[in-house]
Amino acid sequence: MTTPPRSLASALFPIGLLLIAMASIQSGASLAKSMFPIVGAQGTTALRLIFASVIMLVLLRPWRATLTAKSLRTVIIYGMALGGMNFLFYMSLRTVPLGIAVALEFTGPLAVAIYASRRAVDFLWIALAIIGLLLLIPMGEASSGIDWIGAAYALGAGGCWALYILFGQKAGNDNGVQTAALGVMIAALFVAPIGIVHAGAALLTPALIPIAIGVAILSTALPYTLEMVALTRLPARTFGTLMSIEPAFGALSGLFFLHEHLSLAQWLAITCIILASVGATLTMRNESKPLVPAD
């Protein structure tokens, strides 16, 4: 009599962890945006990655990883992709609502998923993604249009996310979860000089330190931990399908924390991109564990 409840609980547990992780990432992005007036998106990215690298250094002890010349090259590209993804995403948030930025960024893993499948049904997912992009990208003088530069930054972040997935899988095969810590450290080294040049002494503002630590925990340490646990308990396809709803979490986080109200067309665009991502994940021929970034 007690077996069904335990089975249901064990099935819902990793799903709950993944939902909490997505909410944590987008809440962290909302909190990060509050730092922009003081240190800009550049300084915010630098502080987030610096503190995240310290946290993950302590938790995952990456110095135990064994690196060859080939694996080191892969990890460096992975870390630079991670840094570029975070930097470009935060740059997009200066002028683009959070939910829309996440949706545009999601075109990166969507492209990887579609490329990995290459079946006729993928044209449907491509069409849905294009419809979503056309609804989001500014046309004419519509008041609901999205800033071109901000949209370009978000799409650039999506491109970095695609590289993150491709090289992260290779790097992860060599050193497992320690790759995440190595990647964040390299990302911090890559982005920190940009943030330092842009923000200067403002990065040392005492009031920013607890906020930056909060962003690092919400956007990196907590979700990475929860996602790693969920990955061990969910099929890769289920994991990828659930992750596809992250743009909706971004939109809701932007609405609740940043008071970013989206138009009906923008909500429809986000829905199209979510459906395209879900469809591409469900019809993917080769199942592999997806890698998720800390936006």
TrEMBL record:
Coiled-coil ranges (or none): none
Domain EamA: 149-279
Sequence intervals crossing the membrane: 39-60, 72-90, 96-116, 123-140, 146-167, 179-201, 207-226, 238-258, 264-282
GO CC annotation, single: plasma membrane
Pfam families for this protein: EamA
Domain of life: Bacteria
Keywords carried by this UniProt record: Cell membrane, Membrane, Transmembrane, Transmembrane helix
Membrane topology term: Multi-pass membrane protein
Subcellular location: Cell membrane
Protein name: Integral membrane protein, DUF6 family
Taxonomic lineage: Bacteria, Pseudomonadati, Pseudomonadota, Gammaproteobacteria, Pseudomonadales
Gene, per the UniProt record: rhtA
